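In this supplementary section we document a worked example of the pipeline. Step one takes a protein sequence of length 78 as its only input; no multiple sequence alignment statistics are reported here. Step two produces a three-dimensional model, which step three serialises into structure tokens for compact storage. The input and output of this example are shown verbatim.
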Amino acid sequence: MPMVVADYIKRHIQLLDDKFLVLAADEIRRYLEDYAEHEPNPNLWHGLLGTLETEQRERATRKARKIRPCPACGKPSL
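The serialised model returned by step three reads:
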């Protein structure tokens, strides 16, 4: 069942809001810290964590590009 959930999240990651991405990544990170040695599918969880973290970085980069100030007037260009 975890594989189905992980695949679903990866396919529909663009539908998740920023807060969920942070919460999910934090939860998976804590889970792996506590239970990785007993987890039968650690690669699944590491892969999902990597996907969530990559999406967070990409969104932050896109937002940073949108907020760049206009070289002529200094106002944020959207």
